[in-house]
Each structure stands twice: as C-alpha cells, then as structure tokens.
C-alpha cells in the first residue's frame, strides 16, 4: 500500500522536475535538504532513516540487559561504550530525518504507538553472556553489510551519518567476535554457550536484510532513487559468504545443514529463514515486542519532567533575551 502511495504521488508530480531529479541521482549527485525532491523520495527516506534510528535506540535494550552482569570490569566497560555508541547512532539518524521535515518527537510518537517499525532482530531475548558475542559478531556484522553501501546513498545527510556509524559498527563487530573467540576456546560449557547463541541468532540475523527480493515491496523504487544500494538477497548472500568461514574458524557449526560452498555461483548455498516467523515478529508478535515497546514507553513517560524542565528553561531564557532588547 505504501509503495502504491509512493507511485501514485510520483504520477502527480511535474514530469520535468522528476526527470531532472532522476538525472541528478543517476549522476551520483548528493541530494541536500533544501533541494527539490519528489514527495515519495522524502517519505521513503523518513520511513527508512526513522526505522533505522529506532533500531539503534531499541537495540540498546538486549545488550543493556547484560551491562550489570558482564564477566569482568573490562568487558563491562566495552559493552557500556558499545551501548552508548548505539544511542549516538540513533541521534545522528534522528537529526538526518529531521532535515526532511519531521520532528524527533513525531518520530518517537510513531515508534511508541507502533506506527513505525524497528529491526526485527531486537525482538529476540539475550539469554546468556555468549549472546553478547553473537549479537556483536552477527547483528552488528549484518548491520555493517547493510550500512557500508549506504555511505554512498543519494541523500547527503544520511550518507554522511553512515560514515561515522560504520566506523563504530566495525569496532562493535570485532568486540563481538572477540567474545566468541574466548567462549569458543574456553571450557566445554563455554563453547556450548557460544554454539547455543549461534543456533538461536543465525536465522534472525539473516532476517535483518528484509524479505526475499521477490517479496520486497520497496526495493526497486528505493534502488532507482539510490536510497538502497543493493537488494535484500544480495546483502544476505554477502553476509553468509563472509560469516560462514568465521564460524568455521571459531570451531562452531552454523545451524543449517544445507550450508555448502557453491563453486559455480562463487558463494554459499544456504537455507532461507522461516518467513512466517519474520512476518509474525514485524507485526508485533515476536518474543520480546511487547517488552521492548513497554520499556521505550516507560522511558519516555518517566523522563517527561526532564523534557518539560528543559523546554521551560529555554522559554525563560528566550523571554529574558526579549526583555533585555
Ligand atoms: N525488521 O520492501 P522491504 C541496527 C519491513 S541494525 C523490521 O524489503 P525496505 C543495530 C519493511 O520496513 C538494523 N521490518 O523494505 C545493529 C517493510 O515494511 P513497511 C537497522 C522489516 O525498506 C546493532 C516491509 O518489511 N538497519 O540498527 O526496502 C546494534 C517490506 O520490506 C525488516 C537499518 O534499518 C526487518 N529486518 O528494506 C544496534 C538499515 N526488513 O515499512 C543497532 C536501513 C524489512 O512498508 N534499512 N522490513 O511497513 C534498510 O536497509 C531497509 O529498510 C531494510 C528493509 C533492508 C531493513
């Protein structure tokens, strides 16, 4: 329906302006906030950047769950820094979305009442310390795979936000892999925990790239506008090709009996995730959807006094300035 709306809006726009805009995109020019843009382009960016920002913010919850239980002071400091980085990513992305004429409050309200999505992956629980390794390795690994090409996306503020995010995500992925190396080379019980985390997180990580290309609603228009640089299946394939040898290096087994190198295509064959589970999760029925939204609503309501205090302070300062003029 959204894709249809974007198409019907495009058909109402001035064909000359649309053609000139597409020419700029095809020439790899960056589109900046004050430039003319089709309404569908603006809405698609708000949806994607907003969803991405929400993912960074909600994504703090599964890892925040382990800050108080990290096994050493060093691990605690590293995890704390990583979770703080995710908050920063959310803020850069909300700022990028704001340049498109939507406020951060509006975006937050749409997250809190379920009108906007965030990544499916954050609706799964983090049950053991090994999950901190698997999340860093696989979830941040999948995020980087998606986000590195987005540094070349056509919208300037989004592309620039992505440069810094990608640098930090690389560190996150390495710290996750480092935890996995420790666990996989530890006691048999630790190795089993690492294997169990891989078993649970593998398919949800593959779902992060979105539905298969034949079912993706937005890919073709988003790719024509260079809001997306690759299809969902292309990125999923690259992720499996990069990650399968890493699992082997760790001495762990990817929970997919069909996983096998295919010489002809120069990549791995692998099993698709259970798409009915994916649809359940994005419709709000995953294991932790209710908890995640409840935690965000609680934080928003409990901190209302801070927002109100800051706004009152700013209003008072403005009034003083006017009175002094
Ligand atoms: N989860 O037509 P499609 C991170 C929705 S990492 C939820 O292919 P599109 C982090 C999609 O929105 C994660 N919903 O859509 C990492 C659409 O529904 P609507 C954030 C999903 O937009 C570590 C419908 O399914 N990264 O932040 O072309 C620690 C049809 O899909 C998902 C980004 O957001 C999903 N996995 O492609 C902390 C990257 N997949 O909106 C934080 C930027 C699909 O029509 N985003 N849907 O109701 C993208 O690249 C694209 O939005 C997607 C989806 C590849 C995710």
Folded structure, characterized:
Helix 7 packs antiparallel against helix 8. 69% of the residues lie in helices and 2% in strands. It is mainly alpha-helical and 325 residues long.
Task: Please describe the structure with a list of short key phrases separated by commas or semicolons.
325 residues, mainly alpha, two-stranded antiparallel ribbon, 2 strands, 69% helix, 2% strand, binds benzoyl coenzyme A
Give the helices and strands, then pairings.
Layout: H1 2-12, H2 15-26, H3 39-58, H4 60-64, H5 73-98, H6 104-112, H7 130-150, H8 156-184, H9 188-207, H10 219-224, H11 232-250, E1 260-262, E2 267-269, H12 275-285, H13 289-302, H14 304-324
Antiparallel strand pairs: 1-2
The structure holds benzoyl coenzyme A.
- Give the topology string: H per helix, E per strand: HHHHHHHHHHHEEHHH
* Low-confidence segments: none
- Distance between the ends: 53 Å
Largest sheet: 2 strands, antiparallel
* Structural class designation: mainly alpha
How many beta-strand elements?
2
The quaternary state of the protein chains shown equals single chain
Report the principal-axis shape.
globular
What proportion of the residues is helical, as a percent range?
Answer: 55-70%
Strand content: under 5%
The average pLDDT is 95
Number of helices: 14
Ligands in the structure?
benzoyl coenzyme A
């Amino acid at each position: 329906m959204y894709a249809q709306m974007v198409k019907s809006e495009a058909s109402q726009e001035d064909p000359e302006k649309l053609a000139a805009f597409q020419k700029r995109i095809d020439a790899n020019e960056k589109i900046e906030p004050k430039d003319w843009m089709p309404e569908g382009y603006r809405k698609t960016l708000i949806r994607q950047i907003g969803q991405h920002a929400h993912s960074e913010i909600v994504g703090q919850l599964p890892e925040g769950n382990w800050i108080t239980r990290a096994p050493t002071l060093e691990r605690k400091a590293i995890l704390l820094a990583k979770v703080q980085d995710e908050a920063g990513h959310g803020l850069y992305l909300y700022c990028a979305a704001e340049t498109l004429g939507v406020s951060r409050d509006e975006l937050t309200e749409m997250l809190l009442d379920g009108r906007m999505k965030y990544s499916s992956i954050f609706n799964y629980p983090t049950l053991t310390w090994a999950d901190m390794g698997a999340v860093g390795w696989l979830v941040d690994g999948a995020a980087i795979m998606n986000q590195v090409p987005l540094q070349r996306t056509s919208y300037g503020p989004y592309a620039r936000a992505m440069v810094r995010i990608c640098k930090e995500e690389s560190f996150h992925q390495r710290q996750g892999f480092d935890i996995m190396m420790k666990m996989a080379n530890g006691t048999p019980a630790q190795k089993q925990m690492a294997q169990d985390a891989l078993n649970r997180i593998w398919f949800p990580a593959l779902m992060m790239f979105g539905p298969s290309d034949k079912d993706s609603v937005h890919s073709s228009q988003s790719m024509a506008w260079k809001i997306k640089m690759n299809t969902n299946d292309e990125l999923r394939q690259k992720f499996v090709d990069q990650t399968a040898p890493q699992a082997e290096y760790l001495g762990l087994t990817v929970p997919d009996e069909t996983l096998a190198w295919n010489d002809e295509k120069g990549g791995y064959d692998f099993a698709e995730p259970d798409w009915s589970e994916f649809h359940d999760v994005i419709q709000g029925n995953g294991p932790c959807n209710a908890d995640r939204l409840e935690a965000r609503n609680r934080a928003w309501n409990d901190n209302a006094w801070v927002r109100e205090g800051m706004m009152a302070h700013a209003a008072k300062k403005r009034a003083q300035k006017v009175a002094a003029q």
